[in-house]
From TrEMBL:
InterPro entries: IMPase, Inositol_monoP_metal-BS, Inositol_monophosphatase-like, Inositol_monophosphatase_CS, Inositol_monophosphatase_SuhB
Keyword Magnesium among UniProt keywords: yes
Organism domain of life: Bacteria
Molecular-function GO terms, alphabetical: hydrolase activity
Cofactor: Mg(2+)
Family indicated by similarity: Belongs to the inositol monophosphatase superfamily.
Full protein name: Inositol-1-monophosphatase
Higher taxonomy: Bacteria, Pseudomonadati, Pseudomonadota, Gammaproteobacteria, Oceanospirillales
Species per Swiss-Prot/TrEMBL record: Aliikangiella maris
Enzymatic reactions: a myo-inositol phosphate + H2O = myo-inositol + phosphate
Length: 254
């Protein structure tokens, strides 16, 4: 797995350099569906990542946000070339590259790279999580009173707004404050690093969370859907937090 991590880091750094270089030269912005934008840079960065990994592992398969499925190997790389495309387009310097290698549906290796802050979050299943090679752990915040939570608004799921508001109204009075940064992968990496105590969002895709969820669990956190079911992959909701905050959040949500 260490060799997989080395390749994933190489691919993420290459893509990071490229995406930063292109920030003032975006040639096309297209809308895939309501409020889901893709630029020529997202597409080229995804190709760069897949080409780099496929060169080392030609029999692996891929799921990229912009290019979909390719190949059929049991090792499957899940790639979000820019998580936070709206931020990237609007020059808000908060986005990242997310790469995970999965085996039979489970994440084994995770890389989340923020090239602007030069922060590289990595994890290998069973071996803990790191930020720039230093071990990270979820926060120890006891209960929610002093906790800083992160969320994503249901901006692509208007039918979820009422349910979102209900949960927000349950959680907000009990926590210290709430953040909406615009990159679910960074939200998860920050939970792993103990910067946020918990994170919750509706309607995320595999590429948004495949790396971040492994970071959280390897840092000692818990991940589930809003019912507490660890099979969050099949659900439309995601909750990730340190074990104490997780318990309190789950109770309030339900
Ligand atoms: C989005 C970001 C955002 C989250 C959305 C994601 P994208 O990813 O992670 O924070 O709220 O649900 O789709 O489209 O910028 O890769
Ligand atoms: Ca997108
Ligand atoms: Ca994403
Ligand atoms: Ca993306």
């Amino acid at each position: 797995m260490q060799a997989f991590l080395t390749i994933a880091v190489r691919a993420a750094r290459k893509a990071g350099d490229y995406i930063v270089r292109e920030a003032d030269k975006i040639r096309s912005v297209q809308s895939k569906s309501s409020n889901d934008f893709v630029t020529n840079v997202d597409e080229a960065a995804e190709k760069l990542i897949i080409d780099t990994i496929a060169q080392a592992y030609p029999d692996h398969s891929f799921l990229g946000e912009e290019s979909g499925h390719s190949g059929s190997g049991e090792y499957r790389w899940i790639i979000d070339p820019i998580d936070g495309t709206t931020n990237y387009i609007r020059k808000v310097p908060h986005w990242c590259i997310s790469i995970a290698c999965t085996y039979r549906g489970r994440s084994e290796v995770a890389v989340i790279y923020d090239p602007i802050r030069e922060e590289l979050f990595t994890a290998v299943k069973g071996r803990g999580a790191q930020l720039n090679d230093k071990r990270i752990r979820v926060s120890q915040t006891n209960g929610l009173e002093h906790s800083l939570l992160a969320t994503g608004f249901p901006f692509r799921h208007p039918q979820k707004l009422a349910e979102y508001n209900r949960i927000f109204n349950q959680l907000f009075p009990h926590c210290a404050d709430m953040r909406r940064g615009g990159s679910a992968a960074l939200d998860l990496a920050y939970v792993a690093a103990g910067r946020f105590d918990g994170f919750w969002e509706f309607g995320l895709n595999e590429w948004d969370i495949a790396a971040g969820t492994l970071l959280v669990t390897e840092a000692g956190g818990i991940v589930s859907d809003f019912s507490g079911n660890p099979n969050y992959q099949n659900s439309n909701s995601l909750l990730a937090a340190n074990p104490k905050a997780f318990k309190s959040m789950l109770k309030l949500i339900n």
